[in-house]
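Q: What does the assembly look like in three dimensions?
Context provided by user:
Components: three
Sequences:
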Amino acid sequence: MPELPEVETIRKDLEKEIVGKKIIRVEIFQKKSIKNSLNKFKKELKNNFITSVQRKGKLLIFELKKTKKHLLVHLRMTGQLIYNKKEKKNEHTGALIYFKDGSILHFNDIRRFGYMKVVDQKEKNKIIDNLGIDLLDKKFTFGKFKNLLKNRNGMLKAMLLNQKMIAGIGNIYADEICFLAKLNPSRKIDSLDDKETKTLYNSIRNIIRLAIKHRGTTFSNYVDAMGQKGKFSKFLKVYKKEGQKCSCCKKTVIEKAKMAGRSTRYCKNCQRQKRGNLSK
DNA sequence: CTTCTTGTTACTGA
DNA sequence: ATCAGTAACAAGAA
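A: Here is the predicted structure of the complete assembly.
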């Protein structure tokens, strides 16, 4: 499930490979994956050039030279963007983008929730502005984070998953961040004191940074633009670890519960509900 | 067979 | 306005 670290890994891979390349042909196999009319989609891409590969949250943004329009790609749950020198189409391939040098960008998506769409400046801005600040944005400082949390009352887990607040965190990293911060995912935002907020901020930065360093988490489906698995999987402390002993206190078993509508894994002992409530 | 999985949006009701 | 809860989407795994 691509979250920010996975999408950033793909972005960096593709930036190296396809910037400046000319698109000569587009083939579509799953029209559900394309949010334009197929003719428009092909017309906008054919004989155009990709001038940059950007990202906001989990959304990939390819800048197109001639028209200054953008190709947006969201991988949702099972989407893949794989760059190859040769065609490696399979039954889940939704579209292929052929470059003049013979290389090919594959858009694969088992569950077909992901999408590709060419948008003009106005629509691009509308979609971008609907997302909160990107976790890697220089402006995502502790002060900014504290400000965002002001006058909020919801659950910690829901806040981390809310892309309109901060963009990029999904279910895996939300649980890992809460575990590192030693905060119960069901904590109310307005119950966090300054020290806890600071710990939370640092945990977000540290988990995301470490996950990018290890090229993301492959749990089931995710691969980078070269088709390689992410190596952060072996650093996971709580995600899908229910039933196993907590790696921190080494005695309590990791629990699984539904929070904010998502399955959530946490240690009841280490991630206390309130300060001073740590049972020993 | 049923249930669960996840990112996002839409909708309901408090 | 804000928040919680749920359905919907799709396809596969358990």
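Follow-up: Confidence is low (pLDDT under 50) at residues 276-280 of chain A.
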